[in-house]
Amino acid sequence: MNTVDVFGATSTTDEVLSGVSLHGKRILVTGVSAGLGIETARSLVAHGANVVGAARDLVKAETATAPVRWEAAAPSAGTFELVELDLAVLSTVRECADALLAKGQAFDVIIANAGVMATPFSNTADHFEMQFGTNHLGHFVLVNRIASLIRPGGRLINLSSAGHRFSNVDLDDPNFESTPYDPFVAYGRSKTANILFAVAFDRRHRERGVRAAAVHPGVIQTELGRHMDRTRLEGMVKQMNEQLAAEGKGPFQWKTISQGAATSVWAGLVAPAEEIGGRYCENCHVGKIMPDDVTISGVSEGVRGYALDPKNAEALWKKSEELVEESF
């Protein structure tokens, strides 16, 4: 059955995983101390998976993941454990990767869920622009270091966003050293990088049966938007509603957190590997490429071609290796 016909924008994690047993599956989810990460981990554990949740603040994560631990207490549920990971500090990223490698337990899926959005200008501990450094480079180092742990038939799922449409990557000035800083442009660059990383990773690992994809969870009210100016957010929603009205459609609807996490688990565990490998997914199906000259509203579907361009992906991979001073 074509999975496009089964699930859509309003599907929840439990609907996507209905009837699916994940017993024996081991899954790494980053960013489990808030929003989508908690729900992703909860739904996976509820269906029998053994989940390793990574978080920067373990004290916060211990409290925030109470719903996951509650699920794990059920007789047929999987297990849950936490590991420390600060994506904005590459030394801790490498420590986390080394610890996972030393443990030697394989993963079936890695869901690179953690991220920051529209932050004021700042730098990571390694002097990278915060959004590009956290959302892309931190995951780039972590995933590549533990790539050998992904079982044949496994998958990497990178959380991207429709926000990738704000900007292509800028490999000449990734840290805004000569470009005026705009929080949404920076966010767009990092989210495009998440897609391009999936494209390049998929090309490198598909021969051994490992596939990679990027997903857009939808527009959800989570901690991710804590840096957003309320007035600007209201203006964006107003603009989206005007565009939707012009298209003869109803007003914009926020997704619930469970609906937002659904595409991650769909792409990671339900969709056929050949369907999602090297692609951008949204609303529990593969997104279509939209030409750069076509205006897309914030709620319309579609991915920009530059985000799936293999040459762009290879250029980003090379630049990323230069920046982190490590070859993969």
What does this structure look like?
With about 325 residues, this protein is of the alpha/beta class. The chain has a single domain, classed as NAD(P)-binding Rossmann-like Domain (Rossmann fold, 3-Layer(aba) Sandwich), CATH 3.40.50. Helix content is about 40%, strand content about 15%. The protein has eleven helices and ten strands. It has an eight-stranded mixed beta sheet with strand order 3-2-1-4-5-6-7-8, sandwiched between helices. β1 (about 25-30), α2 (about 35-45) and β2 form a beta-alpha-beta unit. The longest helix is centred in the middle third of the chain and has 23 residues, at about 185-205. The mean pLDDT is about 90.
Walk me through the topology.
Blueprint: H1 13-16, E1 26-30, H2 35-46, E2 50-55, H3 58-64, H4 66-72, E3 80-84, H5 90-103, E4 107-112, H6 130-145, E5 150-159, H7 183-205, E6 211-216, H8 230-246, H9 257-270, H10 273-276, E7 280-282, E8 285-286, E9 289-290, E10 303-304, H11 310-324
| Biggest β-sheet description | 8 strands, mixed
Name the helicity range.
40-55%
Question: What count of structural domains?
Answer: 1
Order of helices and strands: HEHEHHEHEHEHEHHHEEEEH
Mean pLDDT: 91
Low-confidence stretches: none
Structural class: alpha/beta
Total of helices: 11
Instruction: Identify the strand order in the major beta sheet.
Output: 3-2-1-4-5-6-7-8
Brief overview:
This protein has one domain: Rossmann fold. The protein is built from eleven helices and ten strands.
